[in-house]
Specification:
Elements: E1 2-6, H1 14-23, E2 28-32, H2 45-55, E3 58-62, H3 74-94, E4 98-102, E5 108-110, E6 115-117, H4 118-121, H5 123-140, E7 147-151, H6 158-167, E8 173-178, H7 179-184, H8 190-195, E9 200-205, E10 207-209, E11 212-215, H9 224-233, E12 237-240, H10 245-257
Parallel strand pairs: 1-2, 1-12, 2-3, 3-4, 4-7, 7-8, 8-9, 9-12
Antiparallel strand pairs: 5-6, 10-11
Helix pairs in contact: 5-6
Length: 258
């Protein structure tokens, strides 16, 4: 298996991230496009490729978590689509095989007795946009080995499940299993993912306890070994996704001891 570190807020520069990656004897860094230094216009591709080759590592990419390719405002959805398509071009230049993506639930209206998600209320429009997104991305990724991996976050809705199944009809889409996110919502996403485990490509590994995730391995309630074995089964790349350098190093120590 190939192990990676996330982009940590403590490591502002790519050089700091690379030094940590090498110190831990890991294989890759997941570049997080929520941060200003990893916006498309700020990426120095030649520099990244030079550093990648000099240090014998590779990159994966985590798209902006605000991404909403189905927004009903076409100006907004078009901007997010362009972000994805431009990121694909960056991934090609970096030989990055994984682009991690959250699937937005969109806006909801709060009624006296429930929440009504607009993507559910106008599901035909929503799923049409998902199908269009799939087809556009598939053309862009033709003849590459890059996967757009959809990550579970705080529990999939029924309309998201329908959307993901539409995306998974294309070979360019796959799944990221974030085990901490799953634990914090009572593992309600796990059955959906396991039923489609042949599409599992990427794992975000961290411990969790109750509703608190991104903990160092061994400090929460998750059966870590079980999920590592799942990742082995499907030859997944694994990001050890803690939020601090300290927790990351503690997690590596736990892995080495266990």
């Amino acid at each position: 298996m190939l192990w990676g570190i996330p982009t940590l807020i403590e490591n502002y520069s790519i050089e700091e991230s690379i030094n940590l990656c090498k110190e831990l004897n890991f294989n890759f860094i997941e570049l997080n496009m929520n941060l200003p230094q990893y916006q498309l216009e700020n990426l120095d591709i030649n520099k990244l490729n030079t550093l990648k080759n000099e240090n014998n590592i590779f990159f994966t990419i985590h798209l902006d978590e605000n991404l909403n390719i189905s927004d009903f405002n076409n100006y907004v959805s078009d901007a997010y689509l362009k972000t994805v398509l431009d990121t694909i071009e960056i991934a090609k230049k970096l030989s990055a095989k994984t682009i991690n993506m959250h699937l937005s639930k969109g806006v909801y209206f709060t009624l006296p007795d429930k929440k009504v998600y607009l993507f559910e209320q106008y599901k035909e429009n929503y799923l049409k946009s998902i199908t269009s997104f799939r087809d556009t991305v598939e053309i862009k990724l033709k003849n590459t080995d890059i996967k757009i991996c959809i990550e579970n976050t705080n529990g999939y809705t029924d309309f998201q499940i329908e959307a993901i199944d539409i995306l998974l009809q294309s070979p360019v889409f796959a799944l990221t299993f974030d085990i901490g996110h799953s634990h914090c919502v009572g593992n309600i996403d796990e059955r959906f993912i396991i039923e489609r485990e042949n599409k599992l490509f990427h794992l975000h590994l961290h411990d969790a306890q109750n509703n608190k995730d991104h903990l160092a391995l061994g400090t929460g309630d998750i059966d870590i070994e079980r999920y590592i074995n799942l990742a082995k089964k499907h030859n997944c790349t694994i990001v050890l996704e803690t939020k601090t350098v300290k927790a990351l190093k503690e997690s590596v120590k736990w892995l080495n001891n266990n």
